[in-house]
Each structure stands twice: as structure tokens, then as C-alpha cells.
Amino acid sequence: MLLLVGTLLVGVPGTSVAADTGLYVDKTVAACSDTGPGTADTPYCTIVKGVSQLQAGRTLFIGDGTYAETVKPLVSGTAAAPVSVTSWPGRSPVIGTGLVNGALVSSRSYVVLSGLTFSETVADGVNVSSSNHVTVSGNTVRGAGEPRQGETAPGISVRSTSSSTVTGNTVDHNSDHGIYVTGSTSTGNLVADNAASFNAEGWRRNANGIDVLGPGNTVLRNVVHDNEDSGLQFFTGGNNNLAALNVSYRNGDHGIDDYGVTGGRLIGNTVYRNCTSGINVEGTSGSYLVANNIAVDNAVYPAYNDVSCARRAGNIGIWDSAPASTTVDHNLVWLSKTTFTNASGQEKPAPMYTYGSGYTTLAAMQAATHQEANGVQADPRFTSAATGDLRLSAGSPAEDRADSGVAGEQDTDLLGNARVRDPSVDNSHASGPRPYDDLGAYELQPPVLQRPTAGLTATPATGTAPLQVNADASTSTDPQGQTLTYAFDYGDGTTSGTQTSPTTTHGYTTAGTYQLSVTVRDTSGLTDTATRTITVTTAPPPPSAPTARLTATPATGTAPLQVNADASTSTDPQGQTLTYAFDYGDGTTSGTQTSPTTTHGYTTAGTYQLSVTVRDTSGLTDTTSRTITVTTAPPPAPAAYVGSVATNYSTSTKTAGYVTVWRSAGVRAGDLVLLTVELGGTAPTGRVSATDAAGNTYTTAADVADGSGNRLLMLSGVASTALAVNDRITVTFPTATSYRIFGDELSGVHRVDQASTALGAASTYASGVAQATTGNEVAAGAVLLPAGPGAPTWASGWKDLGPAAVGSAQLGRAYRLAGVGSYTATGTAAGPWLAAVVTLAP
């Protein structure tokens, strides 16, 4: 038996286990190797290697790092066993920087690209061509191409590809269309739930959020805004497409543009404040159905830096040859201003609607064309149009007004909400099997009514018979602010009936315990009940002893232990004044006192019974105690090397570098982090410091430079706040042409005892002497060979943590547990060297 977890098959005990279908790439993992197995423990270093090993049914997980590589699957998958490339969970790869494409899927089937970031490619960020059944899902694609003539590129392109899905992607700041579907064989594709914004060619107005030139595709639930040209465009070749539940606003041309295309359906979209006509059907377009849409404030306000927006006007524009075969109905249009500025800078009346001709009101358009019989001209009451929240708010005229029977109307809205009927709304203009769908991309959800909260006080709650009790429910509240009624049940077989007053008075004549309750009801019929206990006696009860209560803080600790004792929560049934006598359990007492608190110091380890005796003015007493456990302080934890935190390097000029914590356990609070830093091509002096994502700081413990641009430093800092996996430690330094940073975690040490540095060219390196003065320390050493040629070795007694190279330079580090004595980082090397040693004390 097998359980499918992600794309890994995990065996159940006692059953056979299939092979792991996952391959892994992470260039930031020190153990990565393109000659290794590509497992999570030993991943490949390059995407090219990982992709070369993919077969049907396998998944490649890509880890941290920036990869100047292209994801180019070499094989196809099947419907039951696709080829998949995705991000390693919890890691954030960036792919394609500086290359032609971030991903290229050509002549392939059943390929999945998901959860990846593609950035700064020369051409298309993701290019899918001559393929079928390809899924591009949940990716981020930005910065494709350059905003210059001949150098622009779309974020995601689907070229001559069918039966594929582009869903849940974020595409922004590309130099051409955000998503581009082109080719006469690009059909049967689904473009859904994507966000496309700020895409622009820069040198001309041409980049759309989504541009479709293929026939028979579905464009569903996308949000497109602030694009240079139209938010969504169907251009010549893009016939018989469906666009439904899309939101398009603040684009530099149309919200939805249809040019030279036929047979399209524009159903239930929300289009707001685009530069020209919001929904546009023009050129040789025809046979269009435009229904259930909301189009507001289009072609009257500038958008995407366009100050004129005077090209074609109207919230909905049906132009040229389109009116003869186009049907429009059940659409909402609205303008918050009645004029617009034309290309000559003149204020002109703003068309509300264009259907062959322009009309300043919907009523004029209806009278002239006999179209839009169920349309409405009214403010849709967006939730917050200024911030792009185009959901409907209560009282919107778009409620329950759509035709649910038109082809392409969806059962749920853009957010997945079900269609709901608002019984307070006139739905006489709605039609179809559900005469209550809302117009536009969002379905207004009716508020969920909450129950009122009953509050009740009873005064007095106790007394001798006959007892007159005043009941007050005036603190009851209703979340909707509705009027409440009140029904009291006195608990003795009598009631008040329903009344508008929140107060009542009742007399109890017989001793007993009664449950006095009130049920409050709002105008929606929702109720809540509160109850108070009424106790009626025949005579005053005899005095009862007080109740002693005691807290001790802290109750455990190491000697000497200062304990605060508090008996202030002790009570007396009669409300009499109490006195307090504390017995500390170690042979000492406080004596009788009026204060309920005391402090006592325990100097010897042991278990003590701390008690308090409380006495009321009637002489009645009660005693309670708490156990105090005093221990001796444990010896300090031994100094120890925990493990490597992370490493990173760069061969380009920087003034700062970072490492990312790779250990799944992170760095424990209270442990010391030692940073070993190699700088190349830098000044011999200048401040070097470090901070991390948790706010911890690191200072220089050892620093040596050879005057030839090479500098070796050791920085230390205590992780007062723990570090989690993927947290960064950032080191700032004078300008350097290369760097290497190692991070190591040590426990039981918290400060630098002594440090020493040296440089030389002999075959034996020696750092100078650092003393360990406490007897429970760690000595840490580092050596830099600026010119190599090989890795340094360490003298006996030092634990070599492994060298690392940046170019020809070799950086080595080691440690040893140090008792009281003198320690020198030493070993053998070829060529010049710089060495440092520090002793780290508790």
C-alpha cells in the first residue's frame, strides 16, 4: 500500500515501497554535485543536470539560488504521469536571469511548471510552443525583455499550443504582454486566475495584460490592471473565445479589447477606469455576446500616464461592423463624471455607451437600438474602487440582475463564492435557471446574522425570605443593532411574558435556590439566554470559616531562591477582615500580619512546605500550603561545536554579502555564531560588521590583511534571538572584488577570550598565540591562502572543517576544545598565508 504525499511515494510499514519520484537541485547546498544521485541530501548543482534526468512521472524540485539556466524539458509525460518542475518546498529559486528564456517547453506533452520565479530574461520568461497539455501554474514572471524597440518580450507565451493551462501566475513589469496566446492551433487552452499588471513596451503603447490570438480558448477569473495597452485583448485570429469573471482596471487602452474577431463571449466581467472604452468590440468583429458585465468610468479619466484617453469612448463600445450581429444585455454602466478631455484638450460630453453611435445615457441607447433591455445605469457601489477592491457592497444595483442562462455564465464568482439570492432585492430583471446571479465578477455575499448577547444582573442575589429581587438585562446587545425584547423566567414557575423593558422585579416568598433567566430576541428572531442563581434562605446562615488561598512565585529554583508568597485571594464568607500568618517551612515564620504578602529567601537546597493561616474577626481559620523546591545551580554547559550554519561566496564587486541559514533546526537562542570572512581585492582596513534577520549583531574578533588586497576576519555574536532556517546573516565591508563567508554555531561559549593573527610565506603557517583562561573554551582557527595552489592542512589536535575556494584562493577553518593554555592555529601550506586564532569563553 502506498500513500501519495506531494509527488513522493511514502511506504506504509509492512508493505512494498515504490521508488522516490523526486529529483532535487540546489546550488547553495555545499554537498550538491552533478555527478551525485540528485537526492534531497545530495542534490544536483544545476537545473540542466536535473532536467536531463527527468522521465514521465518524475518531479524536479529546484532549491535556493539564482540560476542563469533555462528549464527545458527533454521528454514528454503522460496524462497519468506528467513531467513536473517545481520549487523545492520552503525554498525560493530565481531562474533565467540574463538568458533567452527562463523556461522553454517545445514540442512536448503533459509537462507541469509550477511555483517558480522567472526574472530578467532576454526573451519570453516562459515560452511554451508547439506543445499540448502543458500546465504553467503558480509562477512569478517579471522583467522579460527590454523596453526598447526590437527587444521587448512577453512574460508567458503560449505559441501553437493546445489543451494547456496557464493558471494562478503573477506576471508583471515585463516589456510586452503579460500572457500571450498566439497561433491558429493555440486552441482549447485555459487562462485562469492569473494577475497581470504593469506590463509595458515603453517605446510605444502595445503591451496588454493578456493577449489572445488563438481560437476557442477560455479566459477566466483573471485580474489585469495598470498595463500599458489593454488589460485583456482578443486580436485577429482569436475567434470564439470566452472571457468570464475577469477584472480589468486602470489600463492604458481598453479593459477588454476585441479587434477583428468573431463569435466571442464576454460574460460577467468587471471593467473599471480604463483609458478608452471599457469593453470594446471593433474592426471586423461580429457575432459577439456581451452580457452580465459591469463597466464603470471608462474613457473619462486618464490611465497609465495617458492624459487624453480620447481614442474611443464609452463604458461599452460596439463599433464598425460589430453592431449588426452583436447582442448586449444585462450589463451595468456608470460614469462618475459627464465629460472627458479630447485630443485637443477640449471638454466634451462623455458617451455612456457606444453602439454604432455614442449615447450619453443608457436610456437613449436602448431607445435607439432596442438592445440592452435589462441593462442598468447606476453606481455599482464598489467596496473600494480607489484601492482596486471592486467587490460589490450592500445595496448594489448589480445584485440579482444577471441572466444565468447565457452561455459562459459561471456557477461561482471570481473568489469561488456561490450564487446567492438576496430576498430584499428586486430580481425582476434577472433571468435564467438562477434568477439571482449578480452582475460582474463578484457575487455579493449576504451578511451572516449573529445572535444577540444576553446580559443579566440580579440584585440582591441572596437573602432571607421574603426576598425582593430586581432583574436588569439592559446590558444585552445585538451585533446588528436590532431592537430587543425580553422574556424573564423567575425559576419558581412564574414568568414575565415578552416585554420591551429590560428590567423587572419579583418577590420570592419561599426559601430555595432559583434559576432566574432572561431570553432576549432580536427582530431577526435570533435569541440568547442568560441566567443568574437566586438563593433564598429562612435565617442567616452560621458563620463559615474563611478560605485560604496561596500563590508562591517562583515555586522552584536554585539557591539562594527569593520567593514571593501572596494570600490576597483568600476570602471570608462573611466578608470579615482577615489576618495572615506565614510558615516558611524552614523553621522560620512571619508572625501574624495584616498584609497578605511576604517575601522569604531560601539559602539551602531542599523541599519546603510554605503555608499561610488566615483568620477572620470571628476567630475562624483556614490553612493552605505550597511546596517550594530549592536546588543547587547546575554546572555550566561544556563548550561545544554545534555545526556549520551556512556558507556563500561571490566573485563580483560587492560591499556586502550574506549567508542563509540552511540547518532545519536553525540557530538556538543563546548560542554563539562565528563568521569567518575572506575578502579579495579590498583595502587592508575599514569597518566590517554583521547583522542577521533576528536583529543579532556581530563584531570583529580577529582581523589580518596582507596589503595586496587580501583580508581575513573572524566575527562573533551571540544569537540572543534564535535564527530559523532561511534566515539571512548579512556582512558589510569595504568594497571587495570577491568574498567567501562561513557561519558556524557553538554552544557553551558567549564571548571572545583572546585573539591573535599573523601572515607569512613559509610552508608552515602559525597564527600567533591566544590564551584560554577559563578551562572550558573553544579555540577556533582560520587560514587564507590567497594564491592556493592547494588546500591548507591542520596540525594534530585541530578538527578540520573543510576548505573552500574562491577562484585560486583557499580558505580553511578548524576548531578544538580548549582547556587552560596557549593555542596557535597552525599547519602546512604552499605559498603566502594569513592566519588567525580566537579563544571563545563561557
In a few lines, what is going on in this structure?
By secondary structure, this protein is mainly beta.
What does this structure look like?
The protein is an all-beta fold and 842 residues long. Helix content is 2%, strand content 43%. It has two helices and 76 strands. It has a twelve-stranded parallel beta sheet. Strands 5-7-10-13-16-19-22-25-28-31-34-39 form a twelve-stranded parallel beta sheet, with no helix packed on it. The protein is flat.
Structural class: mainly beta
Total beta strand runs: 76
| N-to-C span | 53 Å
Overall geometry: flat
> What is the averaged pLDDT score?
93
Report the radius of gyration as a whole number of Å.
38 Å
Q: What's the arrangement of strands in the largest beta sheet?
A: 3-4-6-9-12-15-18-21-24-27-30-33
Low-pLDDT segments: 1-19
The major pleated sheet works out as: 12 strands, parallel
Helical amount: under 10%
Total number of helices: 2
Q: Which band does the percent of strand residues land in?
A: 35-45%
Topology summary:
Blueprint: E1 2-5, E2 8-11, E3 22-25, H1 47-52, E4 59-62, E5 65-67, E6 83-87, E7 93-95, E8 103-106, E9 109-114, E10 117-119, E11 126-129, E12 132-137, E13 140-142, E14 156-159, E15 165-167, E16 170-172, E17 179-182, E18 190-192, E19 195-197, E20 210-212, E21 218-220, E22 223-225, E23 232-234, E24 242-244, E25 247-249, E26 256-259, E27 265-267, E28 270-272, E29 279-282, E30 289-291, E31 294-296, E32 316-318, E33 327-329, E34 332-334, E35 339-341, E36 347-349, E37 353-355, E38 357-359, H2 362-369, E39 376-377, E40 382-384, E41 389-392, E42 457-459, E43 462-464, E44 467-472, E45 485-489, E46 495-499, E47 503-508, E48 512-521, E49 527-537, E50 551-553, E51 556-558, E52 561-566, E53 579-583, E54 589-593, E55 597-602, E56 606-615, E57 621-631, E58 640-650, E59 654-660, E60 672-680, E61 689-692, E62 697-705, E63 710-718, E64 728-736, E65 738-747, E66 751-760, E67 764-766, E68 770-772, E69 777-785, E70 793-794, E71 799-800, E72 804-806, E73 809-818, E74 821-823, E75 826-828, E76 833-841
Parallel strand pairs: 3-4, 4-6, 5-7, 6-9, 7-10, 8-11, 9-12, 10-13, 11-14, 12-15, 13-16, 14-17, 15-18, 16-19, 17-20, 18-21, 19-22, 20-23, 21-24, 22-25, 23-26, 24-27, 25-28, 26-29, 27-30, 28-31, 29-32, 30-33, 31-34, 32-37, 34-39, 43-49, 51-57
Antiparallel strand pairs: 1-2, 35-36, 37-38, 40-41, 42-44, 44-47, 45-46, 45-48, 48-49, 50-52, 52-55, 53-54, 53-56, 56-57, 58-65, 59-64, 60-63, 60-65, 61-62, 61-64, 62-63, 66-76, 67-75, 68-74, 69-73, 69-76, 70-75, 71-73, 72-73
